[in-house]
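Sanity check

After download, print the first record. It should look like this:
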Amino acid sequence: GVAPSALIHFVHRRLRKVQEYFLSPYRPEVFGTPLLTRLPSECAPAELYAAAWRLVRHLVPELECSEGAWPFAVSAVKRDGTSCASCSWRKGCLGCEVPKERCGGGSEGAAGVAKWVDFAVTRTFSIDWEAAVLKQHYKEKIAAHIHVDASVELAQQERKKPEDLIRCLDELTQEESLGSSRHCRTCSRKAGEYRETQHRKQIRIWGCPPLLLLQLNRFHSRRGVSWKVHTFVDFPSTLDLRGHLAAGPMQEDLSKEQLGFRLGQLTMAQQRLAEVLGTPGPLVVTKLGCGPESDRIEVTLPSGAKQVCKPEQLEAIVGEEAADAEVLHTLSRATTAYELYAVVNHIGGMGSGHYTAYVKTRSGGWLACSDDRVLPINREDVVTAHAYLLFYARKDVADGKVELTDLFPAPAPGTQPADPDAVKKSIRKSRCFPPASITKLGLQADSVASDGTSDGETMSEFSSELPPSPLSW
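Expected structure tokens:
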């Protein structure tokens, strides 16, 4: 196999005499370009000096040097090259010098010199030049020239490489590990002993909305510093999200008639329940006196599923079910293709900038909108590095098979707009009925019972047995 190696960092250093000092009148000064090389993990001091000489010999081309008589000393220093890597600052040590003597066998050589350089302490070493060598032989012009390796240019090209929207979506929805393992009660119970399980998470799309808005992360902030990201992101005219959908049953496309029928059913169910229970939501009470203590009721949800709950829990179930029915009917798991119809651009930086927009016309052309100026442009000019917001329309909506007014019917004439404060209060309100509402539910539930009975007296007795205060669930 390949022997283990270590990446070694060399810095040029010279001593400069200062007037004011604490322990030593000389202060190390780092200069020149740092050097990197890779050496075996088990490296003898002579090998370290020979490696340093190979890296700097072009800086003193006129100097003749025999092996072992190096014009510099190599010292183990900290990353900044100004102090010793192992000694305390109280000693004033500028760096423990690596001995130049050749070593014999064993773990230590002659005079107790270590056989190998200890890279566990530091991997940064200073090249402390002799003052006479720096003055007579060191070539500043040669040192000023920096050779740029081909890999640097390749790395810069990779960083400047355009991003792709599809690749961004793939990274967003790929499975990722949460790092360290976590205790899993289910696995431990099955195994009969303590078990830790590697947890993973994944973001997937359940359904495709009629209109899709994608925001590119153009603004970045870290450690109190913010800047704009100008990376070019290539995005297609047509986008398909089928590969990013979560596992689940596929639904069929709905025609306008089917969609209208479904919305009509939903509206009728909500109106009927509003009349019966005084709260919206397509839900039917089918059985009373369920549960171990006969204090539960059974309700049938729009999906056909049955759920047993306490009467005070019914309001929350109705609200959640109605909200799901209103939202999910606009999503599609069969039609996953989208067409680009608008782009919002941001030109500028963090402190200032200008917004423009590209809009697709009904005829398929594109218009550039900037303030009050509207000009036609080519499709090729829509994709730029200034793109910030991308607007896509689902294929059935873009082709006119489904109108947005079919998905989002206009409110009936005379409908009062929702009060934002009232909506916030309803969200914060506890999921339970007040006592008066429980009694009303008990009196009226017989009119929606599935068995057709209308025993108002029994229902009143049932409601009177409920606790005087609501119970949250």
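If your output differs, re-run the checksum step. Summary of this record's structure: The chain has 13 helices and 23 strands.
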